[in-house]
Amino acid sequence: MSIPKLIDIHTHVNFNAFKDDGDEVVKRTLENNIWMILVGSQIDTSRRAVEYAEKYPEGVYAAVGLHPIHLTEAYVDAKEISEEGVLGFKTRVESFSYEVYKELAQHLKTVAIGECGLDYYRTTEHGTHNMEQIKKLQADTFRQQIALAREVKKPLMIHCRNAYEDLIQILKEEHAQEIGGDIHFFAGSWDVAKQFLDLGFYLSFTGVVTFARDYDEVLKNVPMDRVMIETDAPYVTPVPHRGKRNEPLYVEYVAQKIAEIKNLPETEVFEQLVGNTRKLFRL
Ligand SMILES: [Zn+2]
Protein backbone atom coordinates (compact mmCIF):
# COMPACT_ATOMS: atom_id res chain seq x y z
CA MET A 1 0.00 0.00 0.00
CA SER A 2 1.26 3.48 -0.85
CA ILE A 3 1.79 6.23 1.67
CA PRO A 4 -0.08 9.51 1.15
CA LYS A 5 1.41 12.94 1.79
CA LEU A 6 -1.67 13.96 3.83
CA ILE A 7 -5.18 12.75 4.61
CA ASP A 8 -8.21 15.07 4.82
CA ILE A 9 -10.11 13.23 7.53
CA HIS A 10 -13.41 15.09 7.18
CA THR A 11 -14.69 16.35 3.85
CA HIS A 12 -17.99 16.37 1.96
CA VAL A 13 -17.36 15.81 -1.75
CA ASN A 14 -20.46 13.64 -1.34
CA PHE A 15 -22.56 16.81 -0.80
CA ASN A 16 -24.53 18.65 -3.47
CA ALA A 17 -21.94 21.44 -3.62
CA PHE A 18 -19.85 18.95 -5.66
CA LYS A 19 -22.64 17.34 -7.67
CA ASP A 20 -21.25 18.56 -11.00
CA ASP A 21 -17.54 17.91 -10.54
CA GLY A 22 -17.08 15.59 -7.53
CA ASP A 23 -14.97 13.05 -9.40
CA GLU A 24 -12.69 15.73 -10.82
CA VAL A 25 -12.19 17.07 -7.30
CA VAL A 26 -11.41 13.59 -5.95
CA LYS A 27 -9.01 12.84 -8.84
CA ARG A 28 -6.96 16.02 -8.50
CA THR A 29 -6.69 15.41 -4.76
CA LEU A 30 -5.45 11.84 -5.26
CA GLU A 31 -3.04 13.00 -7.99
CA ASN A 32 -1.47 15.22 -5.36
CA ASN A 33 -1.10 12.16 -3.12
CA ILE A 34 -3.71 13.37 -0.64
CA TRP A 35 -6.31 10.89 0.65
CA MET A 36 -9.73 11.68 2.11
CA ILE A 37 -12.56 10.46 4.30
CA LEU A 38 -15.96 11.48 2.90
CA VAL A 39 -18.38 12.07 5.72
CA GLY A 40 -22.14 11.50 5.56
CA SER A 41 -24.73 13.48 7.50
CA GLN A 42 -27.87 11.49 6.63
CA ILE A 43 -28.71 8.23 4.83
CA ASP A 44 -28.38 9.63 1.30
CA THR A 45 -25.10 11.49 1.86
CA SER A 46 -23.71 8.49 3.79
CA ARG A 47 -24.63 6.20 0.92
CA ARG A 48 -23.02 8.57 -1.57
CA ALA A 49 -19.84 8.59 0.52
CA VAL A 50 -19.69 4.80 0.32
CA GLU A 51 -20.36 4.88 -3.45
CA TYR A 52 -17.46 7.29 -3.98
CA ALA A 53 -15.18 5.14 -1.83
CA GLU A 54 -16.12 2.04 -3.86
CA LYS A 55 -15.10 3.75 -7.10
CA TYR A 56 -11.49 4.33 -6.09
CA PRO A 57 -9.16 1.43 -5.27
CA GLU A 58 -7.24 3.49 -2.72
CA GLY A 59 -7.34 6.83 -0.93
CA VAL A 60 -11.09 7.45 -0.62
CA TYR A 61 -12.95 6.23 2.46
CA ALA A 62 -16.37 6.81 4.02
CA ALA A 63 -17.86 7.73 7.39
CA VAL A 64 -21.57 7.06 7.80
CA GLY A 65 -23.92 8.61 10.32
CA LEU A 66 -26.77 10.92 11.17
CA HIS A 67 -25.88 14.52 12.03
CA PRO A 68 -27.80 15.98 15.01
CA ILE A 69 -29.18 18.92 13.03
CA HIS A 70 -31.12 16.50 10.82
CA LEU A 71 -33.22 15.17 13.68
CA THR A 72 -35.51 18.18 13.85
CA GLU A 73 -36.37 21.09 11.59
CA ALA A 74 -33.63 23.69 11.58
CA TYR A 75 -32.68 26.48 9.26
CA VAL A 76 -29.08 27.12 8.38
CA ASP A 77 -28.35 30.65 7.28
CA ALA A 78 -25.82 31.33 4.52
CA LYS A 79 -24.30 34.07 6.65
CA GLU A 80 -23.70 31.71 9.52
CA ILE A 81 -21.27 29.65 7.48
CA SER A 82 -19.90 32.89 6.07
CA GLU A 83 -19.23 31.58 2.60
CA GLU A 84 -20.38 33.45 -0.47
CA GLY A 85 -22.41 31.41 -2.86
CA VAL A 86 -23.61 28.84 -0.36
CA LEU A 87 -27.34 29.17 0.10
CA GLY A 88 -29.17 28.53 3.32
CA PHE A 89 -31.01 25.25 3.39
CA LYS A 90 -33.83 23.62 5.29
CA THR A 91 -32.71 20.34 6.80
CA ARG A 92 -34.66 17.21 6.00
CA VAL A 93 -35.84 15.46 9.11
CA GLU A 94 -34.70 11.87 9.59
CA SER A 95 -34.90 9.44 12.51
CA PHE A 96 -32.04 7.03 13.08
CA SER A 97 -32.44 3.59 11.54
CA TYR A 98 -29.92 1.26 13.19
CA GLU A 99 -30.28 -1.45 10.55
CA VAL A 100 -29.83 0.85 7.54
CA TYR A 101 -26.74 2.47 9.03
CA LYS A 102 -25.39 -0.89 10.15
CA GLU A 103 -25.33 -2.10 6.57
CA LEU A 104 -23.45 1.02 5.45
CA ALA A 105 -21.18 0.82 8.49
CA GLN A 106 -20.10 -2.74 7.70
CA HIS A 107 -18.84 -1.77 4.26
CA LEU A 108 -15.10 -2.41 3.88
CA LYS A 109 -14.44 1.20 2.87
CA THR A 110 -16.36 2.64 5.83
CA VAL A 111 -13.82 3.66 8.43
CA ALA A 112 -15.93 5.56 11.01
CA ILE A 113 -19.42 6.22 12.36
CA GLY A 114 -20.49 9.84 11.97
CA GLU A 115 -20.81 12.61 11.78
CA CYS A 116 -22.83 12.14 14.92
CA GLY A 117 -23.03 14.04 18.19
CA LEU A 118 -24.76 17.09 19.62
CA ASP A 119 -25.48 20.54 18.17
CA TYR A 120 -27.21 23.12 20.36
CA TYR A 121 -26.09 25.98 18.13
CA ARG A 122 -28.03 25.36 14.94
CA THR A 123 -31.03 24.04 16.81
CA THR A 124 -34.06 26.15 17.52
CA GLU A 125 -37.32 25.37 19.26
CA HIS A 126 -40.26 24.90 16.97
CA GLY A 127 -43.81 23.54 16.88
CA THR A 128 -43.34 19.96 17.93
CA HIS A 129 -40.18 19.99 20.07
CA ASN A 130 -38.96 22.23 22.87
CA MET A 131 -35.24 22.51 23.60
CA GLU A 132 -35.28 19.84 26.31
CA GLN A 133 -36.94 17.38 23.93
CA ILE A 134 -34.48 18.24 21.17
CA LYS A 135 -31.54 17.67 23.53
CA LYS A 136 -32.94 14.31 24.59
CA LEU A 137 -33.51 13.25 20.98
CA GLN A 138 -29.94 14.22 20.06
CA ALA A 139 -28.52 12.37 23.07
CA ASP A 140 -30.54 9.20 22.38
CA THR A 141 -29.55 9.21 18.70
CA PHE A 142 -25.90 9.77 19.58
CA ARG A 143 -25.99 6.84 22.05
CA GLN A 144 -27.40 4.57 19.33
CA GLN A 145 -24.55 5.53 17.02
CA ILE A 146 -22.01 4.85 19.78
CA ALA A 147 -23.61 1.39 20.11
CA LEU A 148 -23.29 0.89 16.36
CA ALA A 149 -19.63 1.93 16.42
CA ARG A 150 -19.05 -0.58 19.20
CA GLU A 151 -20.80 -3.34 17.27
CA VAL A 152 -18.96 -2.81 13.98
CA LYS A 153 -15.70 -1.98 15.78
CA LYS A 154 -15.10 1.35 14.04
CA PRO A 155 -14.26 4.70 15.67
CA LEU A 156 -16.54 7.73 16.02
CA MET A 157 -16.45 10.88 13.89
CA ILE A 158 -17.99 13.35 16.32
CA HIS A 159 -19.69 16.67 15.61
CA CYS A 160 -20.21 18.89 18.65
CA ARG A 161 -21.28 22.50 18.79
CA ASN A 162 -22.11 24.44 21.98
CA ALA A 163 -22.57 21.13 23.77
CA TYR A 164 -19.17 19.90 24.96
CA GLU A 165 -20.21 19.34 28.56
CA ASP A 166 -23.18 17.13 27.70
CA LEU A 167 -21.18 15.29 25.04
CA ILE A 168 -18.34 14.43 27.43
CA GLN A 169 -20.91 13.17 29.93
CA ILE A 170 -22.41 10.82 27.34
CA LEU A 171 -18.98 9.58 26.19
CA LYS A 172 -18.15 8.71 29.80
CA GLU A 173 -21.49 7.00 30.49
CA GLU A 174 -21.18 4.96 27.30
CA HIS A 175 -17.51 4.05 27.99
CA ALA A 176 -16.73 5.45 24.56
CA GLN A 177 -13.01 5.54 25.38
CA GLU A 178 -13.13 1.82 24.49
CA ILE A 179 -14.21 2.80 20.96
CA GLY A 180 -12.23 5.98 20.35
CA GLY A 181 -12.66 8.58 17.68
CA ASP A 182 -12.11 12.12 16.55
CA ILE A 183 -13.71 15.38 17.67
CA HIS A 184 -14.18 17.00 14.28
CA PHE A 185 -13.81 20.81 13.88
CA PHE A 186 -12.61 21.16 17.44
CA ALA A 187 -13.61 24.61 18.69
CA GLY A 188 -13.29 24.39 22.45
CA SER A 189 -10.85 25.65 25.04
CA TRP A 190 -7.73 23.85 26.25
CA ASP A 191 -9.71 22.79 29.34
CA VAL A 192 -12.25 21.00 27.14
CA ALA A 193 -9.51 19.60 24.90
CA LYS A 194 -7.82 17.99 27.91
CA GLN A 195 -10.99 16.10 28.81
CA PHE A 196 -11.20 14.58 25.32
CA LEU A 197 -7.50 13.70 25.38
CA ASP A 198 -7.99 11.97 28.74
CA LEU A 199 -10.67 9.82 27.09
CA GLY A 200 -8.20 8.90 24.34
CA PHE A 201 -9.86 10.93 21.59
CA TYR A 202 -8.17 12.84 18.77
CA LEU A 203 -8.94 16.46 17.84
CA SER A 204 -9.11 17.65 14.24
CA PHE A 205 -8.65 21.19 12.99
CA THR A 206 -9.94 22.96 9.87
CA GLY A 207 -8.92 25.84 7.60
CA VAL A 208 -10.06 28.20 10.36
CA VAL A 209 -6.54 27.92 11.80
CA THR A 210 -5.23 29.74 8.71
CA PHE A 211 -7.25 32.91 9.33
CA ALA A 212 -8.17 32.98 13.04
CA ARG A 213 -5.89 32.73 16.04
CA ASP A 214 -8.52 31.24 18.42
CA TYR A 215 -7.00 27.74 18.39
CA ASP A 216 -3.32 28.55 18.64
CA GLU A 217 -3.19 27.92 22.38
CA VAL A 218 -5.01 24.59 22.12
CA LEU A 219 -2.81 23.56 19.20
CA LYS A 220 0.38 24.42 21.04
CA ASN A 221 -0.72 22.23 23.94
CA VAL A 222 -2.22 19.20 22.19
CA PRO A 223 0.39 16.47 21.77
CA MET A 224 1.24 16.00 18.10
CA ASP A 225 0.15 12.35 18.26
CA ARG A 226 -3.47 13.44 18.88
CA VAL A 227 -3.85 16.07 16.15
CA MET A 228 -5.62 15.50 12.84
CA ILE A 229 -6.53 17.76 9.93
CA GLU A 230 -9.58 18.27 7.79
CA THR A 231 -11.13 20.73 5.35
CA ASP A 232 -14.85 20.19 6.15
CA ALA A 233 -15.24 21.19 2.47
CA PRO A 234 -17.25 22.86 0.99
CA TYR A 235 -17.17 25.00 4.15
CA VAL A 236 -14.45 27.09 5.88
CA THR A 237 -12.03 27.55 2.98
CA PRO A 238 -8.48 28.26 4.19
CA VAL A 239 -6.29 31.20 3.25
CA PRO A 240 -5.31 31.82 0.41
CA HIS A 241 -8.58 30.62 -1.19
CA ARG A 242 -11.11 32.40 1.06
CA GLY A 243 -14.32 33.19 -0.79
CA LYS A 244 -14.03 30.12 -3.05
CA ARG A 245 -15.56 26.69 -2.49
CA ASN A 246 -13.32 24.59 -0.26
CA GLU A 247 -12.00 21.19 -1.41
CA PRO A 248 -9.89 18.37 0.06
CA LEU A 249 -6.74 19.44 -1.80
CA TYR A 250 -6.59 22.54 0.42
CA VAL A 251 -5.96 20.44 3.53
CA GLU A 252 -2.28 21.07 2.87
CA TYR A 253 -2.69 24.70 4.00
CA VAL A 254 -4.08 23.46 7.30
CA ALA A 255 -1.14 21.09 7.75
CA GLN A 256 1.38 23.83 6.93
CA LYS A 257 -0.21 26.18 9.44
CA ILE A 258 -0.11 23.56 12.16
CA ALA A 259 3.60 23.00 11.53
CA GLU A 260 4.09 26.77 11.85
CA ILE A 261 2.07 27.05 15.09
CA LYS A 262 3.84 24.05 16.61
CA ASN A 263 7.18 25.29 15.31
CA LEU A 264 8.10 21.89 13.88
CA PRO A 265 9.46 20.86 10.46
CA GLU A 266 6.68 20.34 7.89
CA THR A 267 7.88 16.88 6.86
CA GLU A 268 7.79 15.68 10.45
CA VAL A 269 4.29 17.14 11.02
CA PHE A 270 2.93 15.72 7.76
CA GLU A 271 4.22 12.25 8.62
CA GLN A 272 2.78 12.38 12.09
CA LEU A 273 -0.64 13.55 10.83
CA VAL A 274 -0.80 10.70 8.33
CA GLY A 275 0.36 8.21 10.95
CA ASN A 276 -2.31 9.35 13.43
CA THR A 277 -5.03 9.02 10.81
CA ARG A 278 -3.97 5.58 9.65
CA LYS A 279 -3.80 4.40 13.24
CA LEU A 280 -7.24 5.60 14.33
CA PHE A 281 -9.14 4.73 11.14
CA ARG A 282 -7.00 1.68 10.30
CA LEU A 283 -6.26 2.82 6.75
ZN1 LIG B 1 -18.86 17.98 8.33
Provide a descriptive summary of the structure in words:
A divalent metal cation 1 binds at residues 10, 12, 115, 232. The chain has helices spanning 22-31, 43-55, 98-105, 131-152, 164-173, 190-198, 216-221, 251-262, 266-281; strands spanning 6-11, 34-39, 60-64, 75-76, 89-90, 110-119, 156-161, 181-183, 202-205, 227-229. The protein is an alpha/beta fold. The chain is globular. Residues 77-87 have low confidence and may be disordered. The strands form two sheets. Strands 1-2-3-6-7-8-9-10 form an eight-stranded parallel beta sheet. It is built from nine helices and ten strands. It has one domain (6-281): TIM Barrel. Helices cover 37% and strands 17% of the residues. Bound molecules: zinc ion (ZN). Zinc ion binds next to loops. Zinc ion is lined by residues 10, 12, 39, 115, 232.
Q: What string, H for helix and E for strand, traces the elements in order?
A: EHEHEEEHEHEHEHEHEHH
Q: Which range best describes the helical content: under 10%, 10-25%, 25-40%, 40-55%, 55-70% or over 70%?
A: 25-40%
Give me the CATH fold name: TIM Barrel
Molecules bound to protein: zinc ion
Average the pLDDT over all residues and give the rounded result: 92
Structural class: alpha/beta
| Cα Rg | 17 Å
* Quaternary structure type: single chain
The major beta sheet can be summarized as: 8 strands, parallel
Number of strands: 10
Please tell me the CATH architecture by its name.
Alpha-Beta Barrel
Question: What share of the residues does DSSP label as strand, in percent?
Answer: 15-25%
- Structurally, the number of domains stands at 1
User: Could you list the spans in which at least 5 consecutive residues all have pLDDT below 50?
Assistant: 77-87
CATH homologous superfamily label: Metal-dependent hydrolases
Gap between N and C termini: 10 Å
The number of helices is 9
Question: Could you give the order of strands across the largest sheet?
Answer: 1-2-3-6-7-8-9-10
Provide the CATH top-level class.
Answer: Alpha Beta
Per the principal axes of the C-alpha atoms, what is the gross shape? Answer: globular
Binding site for a divalent metal cation 2: 159, 184
Pfam families: TatD_DNase
GO molecular function, one term: DNA nuclease activity
Protein name: Hydrolase TatD
